[in-house]
Amino acid sequence: LERTFSIIKPDATKRNLTGAIVKKFEDAGLRVVASKRIHLTKAQAGEFYAVHKERPFYDELCEFMASAPIVAQVLEGEDAIAKNREVMGATNPADAAPGTIRAEFAESVGENSVHGSDAPETAKTEIAYFFSGLELVG
Ligand code: GTP
Ligand code: MG
């Protein structure tokens, strides 16, 4: 089984969509093996999204991620990374397939309700950034 890292973003926690989004994960066969609700500082959001430092939307993205609580989770399942990306849908909700989280819940390309790791190496670093080994309960 593979593990991936997920964030339920501020636009979704603010609208009380945490449960609805977790249901999408579970219905797709992904198990929540770790979960915590936290409120990032802008600096912490900046560190997490450091790969996007040079992108024009970086500052806006960090502001947004620090604007309200997030729910950080580790999801486990067969092909969890790809499966999660599938359930999330395209970055821009206008392009997201019907039934995906972003198609149903996202407000815009920036405020798009969820984050998911895009590869095994990023999953590993992102999980370690938010969780200790003891907090991962398979
Ligand atoms: P993540 O799972 O959050 O990494 O999304 P992604 O892999 O589908 O998108 P990407 O890594 O390209 O971008 C990371 C995040 O930056 C997106 O999820 C958006 O929240 C934000 N983002 C991407 N493009 C734009 C944009 O054009 N404008 C704004 N404001 N935010 C953007
Ligand atoms: Mg990404």
Describe the protein:
It is a single chain. The protein is of the alpha+beta class and 138 residues long. The protein has a 4-stranded antiparallel β-sheet. Helix 3 crosses helix 4. The radius of gyration is 14 Å and the shape is globular. The protein starts with a strand and ends in an 8-residue tail after the last helix. Bound molecules: guanosine-5'-triphosphate (GTP) and magnesium ion.
Keyword list:
138 residues; alpha+beta; binds guanosine-5'-triphosphate; binds magnesium ion; nucleoside diphosphate kinase activity; Nucleoside_diP_kinase_AS
Order of helices and strands: EHHEHHEHHEH
**Spatial order of the strands in the main sheet?**
2-3-1-4
Large-scale geometry: globular
Q: How far is the first residue's CA from the last residue's CA?
A: 10 Å
Number of helices: 7
Residues in helix, %:
25-40%
The major pleated sheet works out as:
4 strands, antiparallel
* Distinct ligand kinds: guanosine-5'-triphosphate, magnesium ion
Q: Unreliable segments (pLDDT under 50, ≥5 consecutive)?
A: none
Radius of gyration: 14 Å
Mean pLDDT across all residues, rounded? 98
* Structural class by secondary-structure content: alpha+beta
| Strand fraction | 15-25%
Total strand count, please?
A: 4
Keywords: ATP-binding, Cytoplasm, Kinase, Magnesium, Metal-binding, Nucleotide metabolism, Nucleotide-binding, Phosphoprotein, Transferase
Protein name: Nucleoside diphosphate kinase
Catalytic activity: a ribonucleoside 5'-diphosphate + ATP = a ribonucleoside 5'-triphosphate + ADP; a 2'-deoxyribonucleoside 5'-diphosphate + ATP = a 2'-deoxyribonucleoside 5'-triphosphate + ADP
EC number: 2.7.4.6
